[in-house]
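Study this one:
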Amino acid sequence: MSTSWVEVPDGSDFGPANLPYGTVQPRAGGPPRVVVRIGDHLVDLDAAQRSGLLPPDLPDGVFAGTLNPFMATGVRAWRSTRDRLLALLRTGSERRDEVERCLLPMADVEVLLPFEVADYVDFYSSEHHAKNMGLIFRPDAAPLLPNWKHLPVGYHGRSGTVVVSGEPIPRPVGLVAAPGEDPERRPSRLLDIELEVGAVVGTRSPRGARIGVDEAGEHVFGFVLLNDWSARDLQAYEYVPLGPFLGKSFATTISPWVVTLDALRPFLVPGPPQDPEPSPYLRGSEPWGLDLHLEVSLASAAMRGAGEDLVVSRTSFRDMYWTFAQQLAHLTGNGASTRTGDLYGSGTVSGPDPGSYGSFMELTWRGRDRITLPSGETRGFLDDGDTVVLSGWAGGDGGGERSGVGFGRCTGTIVPPTTD
């Protein structure tokens, strides 16, 4: 790994091989800034462009306020900008003094939603998760439905309720009914998480076009951690016959740093074997799996006050049955268009063992096996005041020394409903 003249703390997710993009607001005032993070510092990209530090063929003002215009410039501009930043930040750079004038300390900014979300789609692509959910809801039937291994199952969500890490999550309210009873409208009692990785579309595709599996690298700008909060009791009543709606649409949290596909290319791996062989439009020749390690931590209000949390899940993204490239090919397989800023979630990431499940529905087996916290409290699902933290990084063995290419933290705290 190359070294940088910018100090990077040991164990940081934001080493010089990463350089993820985000949008921040200076605490001292002024307009939002599009930035690249290294260690605990940020390169103000609009300032860097105005100083002549970035490739000259970038459109003027492309970093003024939001990441979307840069994402729309396409893969050639993404790579030339990344190459320039790598050179500018490398130890021995002759333009260090100029770059230092464009640096912002993390402590001096507030992170914002990193890009303007266009459309939002969520998939259901972990075989372990899908089988677990089938066993929970259909214990007397085959856990996978007949279509699951033939296409990436998904649904459309609401882009307007995607929020950045740190935003509070009000407990949703909706209709819930026990079998044989009339529904009542009340706050969800089965509030859950979904540990996911989200892909961010940079280069749009027109209506009627189809993106092939091996064309994903021309369209996907990067990735974020994603928590698709789920009200399981609302979902259970509404999802027959059409699927998730209010049980999902109230909030989706994403991490503030978009880790680019180019930063993650060293960690691309073959996906798992697929049997039966998928339809030709879902076949590719490139390795589109991602070697990512993921964790879920939980802290109650009492634990948070004591500076404690509990890791409840550790899992891997590399075994996801359907890859992000196949998901994009399926998303456009009917000729649907994509837009800059489209976000699509991987679906819950679960491994083969109870400690590797990506939702409390699985971790507690629908609340049957409650989790005991260090504070002595127990949880089946989430209580008000609970904070969930997702974290993820690329490569390695899941612990010890990290690659320096990671996502940081994706957090959300449950607060009481904002409506009755």
